[in-house]
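Re-running FAD binding domain-containing protein to confirm reproducibility after the cluster update. Everything else is unchanged from the original entry.
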Amino acid sequence: MHPFTYTKAADTREALVAGGRGGRYIAGGTTLVDLMRETVERPGALVDISGLPLREVTVTGRGGLRIGALVRMAEAAAHPEVRSGYPLVSQALELSASAQLRNMATIGGNIMQRTRCTYFRDVTAVCNKREPGSGCAALHGFNRGHAILGTSDSCVATHPSDLAVALTALDADVHLLGREGERTVPFAEFLLRPGSTPNREQAVRPGELIIAVEIPAHPRPLKSGYLKVRDRQSYEFALTSAAVALHIRGGVVREAKVAAGGVGTVPWRLPAVERRLIGGRPSDGLWAEAAEYAADGARPLAYNGFKAELLKRTVERQLRIVGGTA
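Result of re-run:
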């Protein structure tokens, strides 16, 4: 680990001043500290924001939720408003990491976490995320766990967050605070596809601080859930996952929100699946037909071609679990 300075911010003003000078924000530290130990990250200054008043979960509008950036993952998963209104979010959180990590990690830190690509974390391997222009070892390496959607010639790493898949499906927003004030970024635009600049992963401006994520109100009744498929039952990242939210009224699917994880360089929204669902009547046939569109545009690599079929099956299974049958 390389030397660094440490500052504990007393309030948001102090945090923004330190962040504006190049300090890296840290709260739970469950990702950043690991990367510092591996010398993948080498910040010269850390700004501890764990004492800031960003720990509330509040109901907004007609049933939306605003979750403070420093709410712990375990706290958010157990919160009664989250569990009752958006079980999709609770399930995504509970299927993430270990209980110990969920007790430490924050909501803001979770959506800022970096890829688990082994080549990114191996400082002896070439990686455009670590060193722009150096190359991507995963393109022609062992890429079983890598992305099949949203890839480029510069990067094929998946985004690891389960929560981010749920927030993508639910059309969430991210609230950011900077020296020039507060702004809001739709979650669909917050995490960036790699393109030719995979080192730029989020739409966060220098010195900005995440203060909350907000889920808008959705039509009721809303049935939702999260399914994660992985090599082992616990403490493992997704090979694929499906976040599903359905508004079914009068025996017809009126609204459908579907996103996938473990297969994209960012959490991957599935609009073709959603379009096939809307107006249909819940049935095994509808779920199977819609799921056939889940892997549209996939570009499998040498070792992860199985993910396209696995994604379809995962989406179909989760549609059946959430939507039931007529």
